[in-house]
């Protein structure tokens, strides 16, 4: 499904991602772990087309998506969340999702001026898609509330829903459960299992080790931009190189 070959991203003299090759399987939960600054978010930025790699290739279902702009990558089925999501505080949860969708539709200014059939069709599609995403993440009951009035945990779920409005095949989740309590964390784990049960491929950056260890099918460990290990949770947990990276400092 997602194959990355010798991916490198330089920021000046710093290799934020350094010659990483990895394959993520369809319908699995793939995790990326590593200390702060290891290059995890940059790795996501490369896959989603937000940053262009310095070298290397990214293949999605055999299609070379390297250097494609992020909107095109999104249309090919890559959805994502960000470590921090900017939402419109004084707009409803539903409107936040519709805006996210509208930015990606085909209608031009002309359609807006004449309120064309196409625009009306797209508006309805955006609304339906947003409601579907809200239902999936369990937020139907706050659809009409302002972002400013919902809880931290609900905001995180809105970020999930945003990633789902693009009809992704693979979702990249950047620390989706950061800052939520253990009980809520379990809720997010359940949500990710549900995504996989619905045929999605999940790619997850997370610091919560117990969550990763019980949830992930496969783990890649990054350190200073390099892949230092990969395998099942069991393999990674017992890997001396990983233990050194985390405890060696
Ligand atoms: P992680 O998500 O694993 O904590 P990041 O991918 O955010 O790590 O960052 C990896 C390294 O790349 C860090 O040293 C960070 O400072 C650097 N970096 C990330 N984004 C940029 C950028 N846009 N410009 C310059 N340096 C960056
Ligand atoms: Mg990060």
UniProtKB/TrEMBL annotation:
Keywords: ATP-binding, Nucleotide-binding, Transport. GO terms for molecular function: ATP binding; ATP hydrolysis activity; L-isoleucine transmembrane transporter activity; L-phenylalanine transmembrane transporter activity; L-valine transmembrane transporter activity. GO terms for cellular component: plasma membrane. SUPFAM superfamilies: P-loop containing nucleoside triphosphate hydrolases (SSF52540). The keyword Chloroplast does not apply. The keyword Transport applies. InterPro entries: AAA+_ATPase, ABC_AA/LPS_Transport, ABC_transporter-like_ATP-bd, BCA_ABC_TP_C, P-loop_NTPase. Residues 2-249 form the ABC transporter domain. Pfam families: ABC_tran, BCA_ABC_TP_C. GO terms for biological process: D-alanine transmembrane transport; L-alanine transport; L-isoleucine import across plasma membrane; L-valine import across plasma membrane. This is High-affinity branched-chain amino acid ABC transporter ATP-binding protein LivG. It comes from Marinobacter salinus. The gene is livG.
């Amino acid at each position: 499904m997602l194959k990355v070959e010798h991916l490198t991203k330089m920021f000046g003299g710093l290799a934020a991602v350094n010659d990483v090759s990895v394959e993520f399987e369809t319908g699995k939960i793939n995790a990326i772990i590593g200390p702060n600054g290891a290059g995890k978010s940059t790795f996501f930025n490369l896959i989603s087309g937000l940053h262009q790699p310095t070298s290397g290739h990214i293949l999605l279902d055999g299609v070379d998506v390297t250097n494609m702009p992020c909107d095109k990558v999104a249309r090919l089925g890559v959805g994502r969340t960000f470590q921090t999501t900017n939402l419109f505080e004084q707009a409803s949860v539903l409107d936040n999702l519709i805006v996210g969708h509208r930015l990606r539709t085909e209608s031009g200014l002309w359609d807006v001026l004449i309120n064309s059939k196409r625009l009306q069709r797209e508006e309805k599609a955006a609304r339906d898609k947003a409601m579907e995403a809200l239902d999936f993440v369990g937020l139907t009951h706050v659809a009409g509330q302002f972002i400013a009035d919902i809880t931290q945990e609900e905001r995180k779920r809105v970020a999930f829903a945003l990633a789902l409005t693009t009809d992704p095949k693979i979702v990249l989740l950047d620390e989706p459960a950061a800052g939520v309590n253990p009980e809520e964390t379990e809720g997010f784990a359940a949500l990710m299992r549900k995504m996989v049960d619905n045929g999605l491929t999940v790619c997850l950056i997370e610091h919560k080790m117990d969550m990763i260890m019980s949830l992930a099918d496969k783990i890649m460990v990054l350190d200073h931009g390099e892949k230092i290990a990969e395998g099942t949770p069991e393999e990674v947990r017992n890997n001396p190189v990983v233990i050194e990276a985390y405890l060696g400092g």
